[in-house]
Amino acid sequence: MNPGAAANAAGPSAVASATAAPVLDVSGLTITVRGEEGEREVVSDLSFTLARGETLCIAGESGSGKSMTSLAVMRLLPKPAARIASGAIGFAGKDLAGLDERAMQAIRGNRIAMIFQEPMTSLNPVLSIGRQLIEAIETHTDLSRREARQHAVEALKAVRIPEAESRLGQYPHELSGGMRQRVMIAMALALQPDVLIADEPTTALDVTVQGEVLELLRDLQRRHGTSIILITHDMGVVAEMADRVIVMRNGRMVEQGKVGDIFEAPTQAYTRELLAAVPRMGTGAARGEAEAPAPAAPDAVASVRDLTVRFDRHGGFLGRVTHRVHAVEGVSFDIRPNETLALVGESGCGKSTTAKAIAGLVPFTGSIAVNGRDFAGLSREALKAVKRDVQMIFQDPYASLDPRMRVGDLVAEPMLIHGIGSAAERRERVAALFERVGLRADQMELYPHEFSGGQRQRVCIARALALRPKLIIADESVSALDVSVQARVLELLKELQQEFGIAYLFISHDMAVVENISDRVAVMYLGQIVEMGTRAQVFGDPRHPYTRRLIEAVPIPDPARRRGNFARLVSEIPSVTRPLGNEPQRLRLADVGDGHLVVAEAV
Amino acid sequence: QELDPNAKPGGDIVITYKDDVATLDPAIGYDWQNWSMIKSLFDGLMDYKPGTTELVPDLAESYEISPDGKTFTFKLRPGVKFHNGREMTAEDVKYSIDRVVNPVTQSPGQGFFASIKGYEEAAAGKADGLSGITVVDPSTIKFELTRPDATFLHVMAINFSHVVPKEEVEKYGADFGKHPVGTGAFKLGEWTLGQRVVFEKNPDYWHKGLPYLDKITFEIGQEPIVALLRLQKGEIDVPGDGIPPAKFQEVMNDPAQKARVVEGGQLHTGYVTMNVNVPPFDNVKVRQAVNMAINKERIVQLINNRAVPANQPLPPSMPGYAKDYKGYPHDPAKAKELLAEAGQGDGFTTDLYVMNTDPNPRIAQGIQQDLAAIGIKANIQALAQANVIAAGGEKEGAPMIWSGGMAWIADFPDPSNFYGPILGCGGAVPGGWNWSWYCNEDLDKKAAEADSIVDPAKAEERNKMWSDIYVKIMEDAPWAPVFNEQRFTMKSARMGGADNLYVDPVHIPINYDHVYVNDVQ
Amino acid sequence: MANPVTPDFPAASASPARPRPGIWRRLVRRPLALIGLVIIAVTLLGAAFAPWLTAFGPDEQMFDGLTLSGEPLPPNTTFWLGTDLLGRDLLTRILYGARTSLFIGIIANGTALLIGTLVGVTAGYFRGWIGSALMRFTDLMMAFPALLLAICLAAVFQPSLWIVAMVIALVNWVQTARVMFTQTSSLTEREFIAAEKTLGASSARILLRHILPHLIPTIIVWGTLGISTTVLLEATLSYLGIGVQPPTPSWGNIIFENQTYFQAAPWLVFFPGVAILALALAFNLVGDALRDILDPTQRGRS
Amino acid sequence: MIAYLARRIIQSILILIGISAITFALLYLLPADPVRQIAGRSATPATVESIRRQLGLDQPFLVQYGRYLWNLVQGDLGRSYIQRSEVSQLIVARLPATLLLMIGAIVCELLIGLTMGLVAAVRRGSRTDDSLMVASFIGVSAPQFVVGLLLLYVFAVRLSWFPIGGYGTFSHLVLPSLTVGIMGAGWYARMMRSSMIDVLYQDYIRTARAKGLDRLTILIRHALPNAILPIVAMVGIDIGILMGGIVVVESLFGWPGIGQLVWQAIQRVDIPIIMGVTLVSAFAIVLGNLLADIVAPFIDPRIKLR
Ligand SMILES: Nc1ncnc2c1ncn2[C@@H]1O[C@H](COP(=O)(O)OP(=O)(O)OP(=O)(O)O)[C@@H](O)[C@H]1O
Ligand SMILES: Nc1ncnc2c1ncn2[C@@H]1O[C@H](COP(=O)(O)OP(=O)(O)OP(=O)(O)O)[C@@H](O)[C@H]1O
Ligand SMILES: [Mg+2]
Ligand SMILES: [Mg+2]
């Protein structure tokens, strides 16, 4: 079969391997942004090609221009600041860089689709996800509304969103971070484009679902010969997926090559550094068990008992409550000073909700005590004092930063609120914090939208650290960071812990990171904790089937050990939404030794 | 009353008004808009010759006045039917007047009948009707008065004494004003609240041949400027509110339009009252100074010469107008002298109240400037009508009021009508309309004397007495008369009838019963 | 290792206190905003120096200002903008009228805006019983016949500009409050507000530093449009007797007195109308520029 | 939802009672005497007093107000002092016209205003934007009387496209709606532009573009619902403004609405009419605001009714 014919026959028979003719040909791409002090290049002279059916992974430093590059291909650079200064983007015989808006409309979504990095702000908050999905499908097919709807349901099911049918009517803010991301993925996949640009598509997904989604991408590629540009920090994912890899730094391409070559024989120092920083499963043990604190110390920083959070789902004409989302259902745990408790679990199992409850952002039942003081019955002043001790880093950094404030002021704000230091001192401290999370002090003058996803995440971290609280709740806080920065940030967190005895509630999907940083691990499933114990207990001796699955599903950052196929789960996707009156069964935890708690039934 | 030989019966006309027609109950209606509408639906014992101020019997065929002037006997015209078909009798006449006097009716016209015997009791609700009214037989009715009353025949011609059928009044109760039934030339056809009132010809009208028109439609709620536009487009026949001041020049400068404007006198005077209770207006010299300060010519110019300067309370077309009286000249120098004599040589500050609709604030500003020239600083208080009236009714409420917009248009064409409530002691009470609070017992006596001259033959003598009264008043100068407004009625080209029907002194804007249209086949 | 920062991180300059260009400086750099500022300045100066700018008195009725039949004169060499129905110089009246109208357009309108924003933002942020109480009070004020209140006030107090300003503020804040309320209640549900709450930020801080800046565009719209409406509303109130009384001019009442004459003497409505329009537009130009300057997404717009 | 509605309805009733009390008190304090208006200029003091007694206006304030409320509960708004008809009848006769004009005006405002605002936002900073800005300010600054008269002159007198005032058919409705609408359109245009500009820079608009949607769909389906929230509040407010404040337009076009009724009543201190209209329009305003509040969570699902 000659390559040209293959390019035209977008059928299931299309070959999976890369063919010679490039679908996308970027050459000499330079992107500039205009700021207060004039124009600045964020991508310089970037050239690469993407072949049909190929998966190109772009990895690299956070803020190195990966997202900008993909936005440039879509011609969706943020106006008025950013523009393509020079270069060409060849696609289907046209130069996208010079195409007008109308011509681009025909290409976007249909020929080139994109999954954006930050799903919260990328979904329209006032439209149900069903509408947003169906609309995408309707735009580029001529299916009837009902067929499109059916299509949408299937797409949601494919990304393993439970209760797909009824989720269609929900709004973005009612979904968990991972769900939102999957909605974005479903939207792009449903269009079956020629080129799919996925910007950090799986950061908010637990490894089991991540596996599913990656498999889905491959499936699409196999069937339609789709070319994929995958931007990711997760070297495991790179190893798992990529045909070729581009490594970027400071807006320039540092290195490019076949995935195997890059992993085996990186030529550039930066690439080597990057690979060295990749967290690997099993390395956490090196930290030594000695530090594991004694169980059930009375002076827990936070102690959560029987925490339950439910959301009402309204239905019918009068808007009566018909269903309830049992987001968190009787969760209990303690976090002691100097301790990192990792909370892991399937996307949508209630991790963020637990975090929000501790931060006092959602109404709950049960009890939460911080520093021995129960939330219930605290005066406003006392609550403010408590809040000082608990800081939260939100899962979605962009949404949690006031877009109209400079990030320097945002980071200084907690200190200002609690009356710490003079203005100059605060500035100094902010500058220091910026440095420590790997941002430049002069970036303090910028606004949130002028940052890359990873940079924003670091701003949020800096902000939470500013007060040196007793407890930091970090919800997927390092997911958007490239591994080297991630390593540094994790190092910083540990250091602070040692210095100030900060406790962390660390929510993450990245099992390798969890393994690295946590003292104890709690595994959540459908709103309840199914297993909890020290890192060694959980990783060394996982008892609950879900825990085992999680650990098994972790991709290994080594293309040589690439798994052929993820087992696609065909089982019913379990859901936490239940009709009124049908309460879930409360699971009992049994101690299997040394405080290693596991659901009684699974023992 | 004769018929117009040129008139052809039939056709209909459209008249517009800005304000709602409040009520068509003759016992209640008392604004210039429903005043003449009621006159076409109802009749009284007396009426005026169309276009004039000359009294003629109407529902009465004839009348007799006793020599002492205290008993009036009317012989009713036979065969007069109400719109509901029933024949009108003397009982109805008595019922109608008893009704007005009865306090339950809340009629603003109650006071007009004060000279009839038994008024006090009836007005207080203590008696069932007026003892002074006797139904002699179904076609004869007799009124006995407590004093001779020269205005009584006029009273019998005003709306409040128009005859209503008892059964209809009782049927509709308080809503009679929306379902009027009378004996008039027209009967009510349709009334759509807020939109239109339609009069239809009364085929059984006792005056054969009248009215000429089949139908009159009053369209309600239309701005005068727009009404004029519609007139120019031929959609309506008469703008009821007249030519809007803003359009007056445009109309008068266009010969074609000007030809359709009828100008006439009006029983109206515009004046400035000075409250004699409020210093320094308690000094007659100050009041005279004000009279001399006002440049009436210029004020008339301000309103596009739609009026003539006035020098006394009575308008020129009113019997009793003192033709030889010259009034106060415009003489600021003299006025200043007078002020100095009154000890106000340095001038003073006062308030000039005025109703807030154009052109009144403008006129007030004209007056203000004239007063400023002699050192009187008058601050203008431009307020809604009700507020100005309220201020005027307080003993020391308003030092000066410009009467425009609320000014006196006579109820009936008799010189006495300009005295009682607005210049006599009776009106100088809290809530009264004598805003200058001028009260001269002597003049009150003279007025009573004049009004007891009932004999029509002595009318001239009576008018002379009234002239003297008003000239006397001008010496005390509680008012500064400024001008007498002229009436300018505009009509469509198709409207016919003598000019004086369009400036009829008692029918505003036009005498509906006698006008006609030229384009009926 | 005390400092985990690897050498290849650019070292932070100790405290990069580069001065941010002042808002004022950035404002005057924009030509449209500059035009707006100039118009406002001219109006202010015109009002302040009116007696020196014109040879006539504001209520001086000139004998030669009217035709014999009492018509006003169109613009001519003596009376540059013509005369009014009393033969007064229109230009003079507009200059003096600016005093009243600026006062109303800025003070009364500003007060209304201030109260409305305060109430709406507070109600939208706190919701609960405070919000409910405030919004029901707003409903009550909105449903309340303002004209009646005006008439009553007119009766009780000596008519004065301050009372007009008060009534205008009283009438106009309500609508601002409503709009601010809806926007604030939407903003309050955004995640960055939740983030602020977890920091322990006081409500006052959240309101002032995080909600208010997002409302600035709306405030600018209401503030600038409010100028026209309040200046015209002043005329209605004066008409009812609670404002400035004739012959004191204001742009609104010049229009009101003369609007029926606008076919016969268009200049009487046109010029004061243009004055109002220019003032409102000028504030809008400045407001729009301010909005752009304060809007971070607009950075980099040339 | 139901609990919320119930609470709001109770609150609304309290508001209406509050308004009736304040209005009644103000009217009571008003120095202008209604009886003098009824009695007219020739009435003797005795007549005036007798009318005052008849109407119960000689009673103390609380008695008068109590009686009014009592009648109100029974659905009786009293009789007009001047017109002597039942107030409810007078209002009912004019209500349809007011509502019609209200709808017409709001439709005009939204149609013109939102389009202008949308276009201006999309073409931000262009010539079009500038001219639309000037246009909307002219709309807001031009006195309604003048606008109405101009429209009448051009479209009714000169071109004869529409009747010169009147009430009844659709073509009667056009010019008055437009006159009212032009002013409102200016407001809506500015509001729309302002909130639209904010929305157009949001990430989800980028997402919509990435789907390949055409411009119009993006504007209407994605941007508009996000920008419309303040507009909905405005419509609620508009109901209030239109309910009583369009006297000028009504009389220019001979439109039999409530504005004229209440204006005449205020001039003549016809208390029962003023009270009646106040209550009816208060009801409409309260209802309008309630609707705006109820609609808000549907537009922005993050808002919860509390
Ligand atoms: N709207 C903007 N205005 C100005 N600068 C911007 C804007 N958006 C991004 N930048 C800058 O452009 C650079 C590249 O950003 P980009 O989002 O492409 O990074 P990235 O490689 O995707 O990083 P990450 O992995 O953290 O998402 C960053 O330094 C960022 O500060
Ligand atoms: N405001 C809300 N209204 C209704 N349902 C909600 C709301 N917030 C969260 N939920 C539901 O609660 C469940 C748990 O959500 P949560 O955000 O805690 O998940 P998560 O564990 O953080 O998932 P992820 O890893 O994907 O972020 C989900 O089913 C979500 O749809
Ligand atoms: Mg990125
Ligand atoms: Mg989450």
From TrEMBL, chain A:
Molecular function (GO) terms for this protein are: ATP binding
Q: Which UniProt keywords apply?
A: ATP-binding, Cell membrane, Membrane, Nucleotide-binding, Transport
Q: Which compartment or compartments is the protein found in?
A: Cell inner membrane
The record ties this protein, via Gene3D superfamilies, to: P-loop containing nucleotide triphosphate hydrolases
Annotated membrane topology is: Peripheral membrane protein
Matching InterPro entries: AAA+_ATPase, ABC_Ni/Peptide_Import, ABC_transporter-like_ATP-bd, ABC_transporter-like_CS, Oligopep_ABC_C, P-loop_NTPase
**Manganese among the record's keywords?**
no
Which SUPFAM superfamilies did the record assign? Answer: P-loop containing nucleoside triphosphate hydrolases
Family the entry assigns: Belongs to the ABC transporter superfamily.
Question: What name does the UniProt record give this protein?
Answer: ABC transporter ATP-binding protein
Native species of this protein? Answer: Aquamicrobium soli
From which lineage does this chain's organism come? Answer: Bacteria, Pseudomonadati, Pseudomonadota, Alphaproteobacteria, Hyphomicrobiales
Automatic annotation (TrEMBL), chain C:
Q: How does it sit in the membrane?
A: Multi-pass membrane protein
Keyword check for Cell membrane, yes or no. Answer: yes
Q: Which UniProt keywords apply?
A: Cell membrane, Membrane, Peptide transport, Protein transport, Transmembrane, Transmembrane helix, Transport
**Which residue numbers delimit the ABC transmembrane type-1 domain?**
98-287
Pfam families recorded: BPD_transp_1 (PF00528), OppC_N (PF12911)
Q: Where does this one sit in the cell?
A: Cell membrane
Transmembrane residue ranges: 32-53, 102-125, 137-156, 219-244, 264-286
Whether Transport counts among this entry's keywords is yes
Family membership: Belongs to the binding-protein-dependent transport system permease family.
Q: What is this protein called?
A: ABC transporter permease
Q: Which organism is it from?
A: Aquamicrobium soli
Traced from the root, the source organism's taxonomic lineage reads: Bacteria, Pseudomonadati, Pseudomonadota, Alphaproteobacteria, Hyphomicrobiales
TrEMBL record, chain D:
- The coiled-coil regions, if any, are none
Q: Which UniProt keywords apply?
A: Cell membrane, Membrane, Transmembrane, Transmembrane helix, Transport
Q: How does it sit in the membrane?
A: Multi-pass membrane protein
Q: What Pfam families does the record point to?
A: BPD_transp_1, BPD_transp_1_N
Q: Which domain of life is it from?
A: Bacteria
Instruction: List the InterPro entries hit by this protein, alphabetically.
Output: BPD_transp_1_N, MetI-like, MetI-like_sf
Q: Kindly indicate whether the keyword DNA-binding belongs to this entry.
A: no
According to the entry, every stretch annotated as the ABC transmembrane type-1 domain falls at 95-296
Q: List where in the cell it is found.
A: Cell membrane
Q: What is its main location?
A: membrane
Provide the transmembrane region boundaries: 12-30, 99-122, 134-157, 169-189, 227-253, 273-299
Family named by the database record: Belongs to the binding-protein-dependent transport system permease family.
Which PANTHER family does the entry link to?
DIPEPTIDE TRANSPORT SYSTEM PERMEASE PROTEIN DPPB-RELATED (PTHR43163)
Protein name as it appears in the record: ABC transporter permease
Organism for this UniProt entry: Aquamicrobium soli
